[in-house]
Write a structure and sequence with these properties.
The chain has 614 residues and is an alpha/beta fold. It is built from 18 helices and ten strands. The protein binds adenosine-5'-diphosphate and magnesium ion.
């Protein structure tokens, strides 16, 4: 699972059955303070009652009868026990039906918070690494079921410990030799169970990758984005074929491990039902009949309880194995939480100043992990506040990669990016990224209200609403949005809200662009979000960006040239390099690559084939 490479290295943490389980217990405690205590308390009381009803009550009755205690006396004792049981049952019902569900919610919320907090700071690079996804999915799975399973194991642990001690004591007083027989499974099945747990764990790990792919395919089947392709193309068949392959994979895994599991189980039962049970009975008969060292009644008690003690012992060792299994799963959760982002605040001392003015990029190189060729080569760039910069170039020339480095999503191979003369790693990541208002090529809208989609923040006040409406004005969406059922508070999907709005591709893009106007970020990055707009609408959006974002820096990326004319400076990129720099007029006069690119587009446009990309 832990493949080579730095990332995997960073995530490997020492796992140990005891520390992992304590780690989990500590988190359950933090999430729901009284849970563990109540859990143990309830279990102990339950175990005491079990012992009373299984063993002690008979002693009361039999001893009482032999000692001539009298009918009413015995009845009073039994009645008291029943009364205690009635009170306890009420308490346990409250615990299980009222307390536990609430506590479970608190625990799951707490763990989820841990995971999503971590997700937020995970390096973007991780998203390209399958082992990262596996780790994430494993961590999420742990949140779902592990706490329940863990607490259940704890219950059984306490319960069995009590049962073993109390019943063993009874057997021991009859003859210690019986106890030795009852203890055999403790040693043997511990090892069998351990191997069993390992096999089960290996099985889970192997199915994980398949599950991820299966979840992906299922998502495609019901998600709206793919609905049209699904109907017009043959992709559904491809999906079904993949689905079949995945199922086949599952079967192979189950078949491979199934035989081994069956074998372990068989050994287990042989040991419990044949060795211990027969051994106990034979010894009891021998002692009662041949040596006469044990009374017949004692032999009967042994014959009756040795199996239950053995089963308790057996499940006790099972429980230890369960804890070991928990430890393995908790280990993967801990690994995930222990991930140290490579982009961090280790060297940070500064927050960007209100009036920060200059972003410089010097001799920047960047290569995606696993790629041979660098995506960016020797990039130099100056971006002054108030300037409108265009980055142009064909697809794959490195434009998006460049802005991702500027926003510090990736760490450069070499070269530097600086804000006001200080390297960006000297700024706190969070504060630094806050300076950027962005609309990316693959922008996302959320199934929340228009307002929340615009402002992308919590705690929205009246001033925020006013800004949001103004922003919609600038992208000419205001009338459209205000005509909706609940105006700007309308949800953006029908998924949760019947009256939710469904916007066209162009409207969604304009909404995404409105985010720039609603915020106050000094640097705006606009990475080809306008491809779904007609050229006139695109031009208008750009005009508005330029007019209304006076005093801010605007970096816009496009493969369409109509908007480049408006830029103060154009960086024309090809193959990861800045090929030419200058204003539109200067670059045309240069008659180089940019001019050729321009000519080609003008020609294509005239021929009616505008927008060959995206
Ligand atoms: P542009 O935005 O100019 O179209 P990109 O910056 O997206 O180009 O991509 C530049 C190059 O880097 C392309 O060759 C692309 O295949 C590669 N690339 C982009 N993203 C990744 C990634 N996550 N992993 C590996 N290679 C990538
Ligand atoms: Mg791009």
């Amino acid at each position: 699972m832990e493949s080579s490479g730095e990332r995997a290295e960073a995530r490997r943490v020492k796992t140990n059955a005891i520390t992992n389980n304590i780690f989990w217990m500590r988190h359950i405690f933090c999430a729901s303070k009284a849970r563990i205590f109540l859990n143990i308390l309830m279990t102990i009381i339950q175990a005491v009652f079990n012992f009373i009803f299984d063993v002690y009550i008979f002693l009361i009755v039999l001893d009482g009868w032999q000692n001539g205690d009298g009918f009413w006396n015995i009845c009073r004792k039994v009645g008291l026990i029943c009364l205690a049981q009635i009170v306890f049952l009420a308490a346990r019902n409250w615990y299980e039906s009222c307390y536990v569900p609430q506590s479970n919610l608190r625990i799951s919320q707490y763990m989820r918070k841990l995971v999503s907090g971590k997700m937020k700071e995970i390096d973007l690079l991780c998203y390209d690494a399958p082992e990262f996804y596996d780790g994430y999915i494993r961590a999420m799975n742990e949140v779902e079921g592990r706490s329940d399973a863990f607490l259940a194991s704890m219950n059984s642990f306490v319960n069995n410990l009590f049962a073993i001690f109390s019943t063993s004591f009874v057997i021991f007083t009859i003859d210690p030799a019986f106890l030795a027989i009852a203890l055999i499974p403790l040693f043997v099945s511990f090892f069998i169970g351990k191997a069993q747990g390992k096999t089960r764990f290996a099985c889970r790990m192997e199915t994980q990758a398949n599950e991820r792919e299966e979840a992906y395919i299922r998502r495609i089947f019901y998600s709206k984005e793919y609905a049209e392709e699904m109907r017009t193309t043959g992709i559904a068949r491809v999906l079904i074929r993949h689905f079949g392959d995945i199922m086949e994979g599952f079967q192979r895994i189950v078949r491979k491990h199934g035989i081994r599991m069956a074998f372990y189980e068989y050994l287990d039962y042989m040991l419990m039902d044949v060795v211990v049970y027969l051994g106990g009975i034979v010894l009891a008969i021998y002692k009662a009949v041949v040596t006469r060292t044990v009374a017949v009644s004692g032999a009967l008690v042994v014959a009756n309880t040795i199996s239950s003690v053995s089963w308790s012992i057996r499940s006790f060792s099972d429980i230890l194995v369960e804890f070991q299994e928990h430890a393995m799963y908790i280990g993967t959760f801990m690994e995930f939480l222990a991930y140290e982002p490579r982009i961090n605040d280790d060297r940070a001392r500064l927050s960007p100043q209100e009036g920060s003015r200059l972003l410089t990029v010097r001799n920047l190189f960047y290569t995606y992990p696993g790629n041979a060729a660098p995506a960016l080569k020797d990039i130099c760039m100056d971006i002054q506040r108030g300037q409108k910069i265009a980055i142009l170039g064909p697809n794959g020339s490195g434009k998006s990669t460049l802005v991702k480095l500027i926003m510090r999503y990736y760490e450069p191979d070499s070269g530097a990016i600086a804000l006001d003369g200080r390297e960006i790693c000297e700024y706190f990541v969070r504060d630094y990224r806050r300076m950027f208002g962005t609309v990316f090529q693959d922008y996302r809208l959320f199934a929340f209200s228009v307002l929340e989609n615009l402002l992308l923040k919590d705690h929205i006040d009246g001033e925020d609403r006013r800004r949001a409406l103004h922003a919609l004005d600038l992208t000419e969406l205001r009338d459209r949005i205000e005509a909706l059922e609940s105006g700007i508070d309308t949800g953006l999907s029908k998924e949760f809200d019947e009256d939710g709005a469904v916007l066209s591709g162009g409207e969604m893009q304009r909404l995404a662009v409105s985010r720039l106007f609603a915020g106050e970020c000094p640097y705006l990055i606009v990475d080809e979000p306008t491809s779904a707009l007609d050229p006139l609408a695109e031009y208008k959006v750009f005009r508005n960006i330029l007019d209304y974002c006076e005093g801010r820096a605007v970096i816009f990326i496009s493969h369409r040239l109509s908007s480049a004319v408006l830029a103060d400076r154009i960086y024309y990129m090809e193959d990861g390099e800045v090929a030419e720099v200058g204003t539109h007029d200067a670059l045309l006069a240069l008659n180089g690559k940019y001019a050729a690119f321009w000519d080609k587009q003008v020609r294509l446009y005239k021929e009616g084939g505008h927008d060959e990309e995206h």
